[in-house]
Amino acid sequence: MRYISLDLETSGGKPQRHQILELAAVVEDTKRPRPLTDLPVFRRAVRHHEYVGTAGALALNARLLEELARNEPNPEICPQKSCCLSCGSFY
What pTM was estimated for this model as a whole? Predict the structure, then answer.
């Protein structure tokens, strides 16, 4: 059976206050198990102008926040409000 595992990283647990930092997905198949490194994956991080979050959530995502702070071109990082998902975009 094929299925998709989703992972959503946020800056806290209150949707009206905290932000989505990253969305990732991996496609798995129970009939053909493969190492994680060989599976199809999707990842998009969202760069915000300012981050609001709990201390625990921000600490847990420190490496991701450092990557976002570098402000280097990266196809896996989308600006806030125009994040491209798969082949399309949302605004």
Answer: 0.77
